[in-house]
């Protein structure tokens, strides 16, 4: 890497933490700045697809990560009564882990003197000879500074998440059950032992009008299999979030970088969670970027251009299919809802594989030509 004195990471989420670890693994000095007073996250689950394993292995945290949860072998689409619509084994097992513990694991592998908490930074705080990596999330202030007209897209859906401890039937172990129908979704994902993560996705009128109490959430699922209400009832904490992304069409023609600043992760390509891959995309960003920065003969401009070209081809299909799936499975018309479920049952396996193959493409760090 030419022309750069220091590498500065703004943001201590997964994108920022994994970028710091990737740089450290490649022997590149870094400084990470996080505006919050601690590195933490809500006590929710995190899905890690199989294509990330080789990255975690290179970062020397694969075995520790596997201890934070369990492997998922089977994916099931079911209706509200737990009748199976479509089931298939994942080509390679995914990981279902505790996100808060994963953040702690990443943080523990960094150099304490290089991490600056309770510290808010902007582009103007650094010189032109310093590299700035904007990993400051979906509400990135740096993106808003560079591209004030690049707006988030609202799915008009809201997500509720939690973790429950309870004994469930054997079929729920090492599996992902996604209940669809009646303009609602509810998912149960094993996390090891008697722990299961869950989420609800439903339409919203406004974020402020949504009630987060268990009784209200359970009332949405009166016509669902009893296991849904049981899982909600056994959850200690419930966390809400609006589902937003950036339409890839609106990023077309825009550079992910400006002078010495590069946008990564949710700062430039946030996605809805329907493909369960937002954090994985951020980790791939970190892995590829650190690899490109390790090439001594590349200029910063060459690195940025190669990074964006490679990541665009991976990110855009995932963002598209995630948005599309989230809309298709939410139908307020019963006839259309039934048609969608019949269509899912009749869809051949190779079409599901084709869509999911966009997720499983592995990221490499070969030198760009």
Structure in a nutshell:
This protein is α/β, with parallel strands linked by helices and 369 residues long. Helix content is 34%, strand content 25%.
On the 0-100 scale, what is the average pLDDT? Answer: 91
CATH topology type: FAD/NAD(P)-binding domain
Tell me, what's the shape? globular
Main β sheet profile: 8 strands, mixed
Number of spatially distinct domains: 1
**What name goes with the CATH superfamily?**
FAD/NAD(P)-binding domain
Structural class: alpha/beta
Radius of gyration: 21 Å
The strand count comes to 14
Order of neighbouring strands in the sheet with most strands? 3-5-4-9-10-11-8-12
Approximately what portion of the residues adopt beta-strand conformation? 15-25%
Task: Sketch the topology as an H/E string, one letter per element.
Answer: EHEEHHEEHEEHEEEEHHEHEEHHHH
Residues in helices, as a percent range: 25-40%
What does it look like?
- This protein has 369 residues and is of the alpha/beta class.
- The protein has one domain (6-360): 3-Layer(bba) Sandwich (FAD/NAD(P)-binding domain), CATH 3.50.50.60.
- It is 34% helix and 25% strand.
- It is built from 12 helices and 14 strands.
- The chain has helices spanning 14-25, 53-58, 62-66, 99-108, 141-146, 214-219, 226-233, 248-251, 278-293, 300-328, 334-346, 349-360, and strands spanning 6-10, 31-33, 45-48, 69-78, 84-98, 115-116, 130-134, 153-165, 175-181, 184-190, 195-203, 239-245, 257-258, 261-263.
- It has an 8-stranded mixed sheet with strand order 3-5-4-9-10-11-8-12, with helices on both faces.
- Helix 1 packs parallel to helix 9 (278-293) and helix 9 runs antiparallel to helix 10 (300-328).
- The two termini are 15 Å apart.
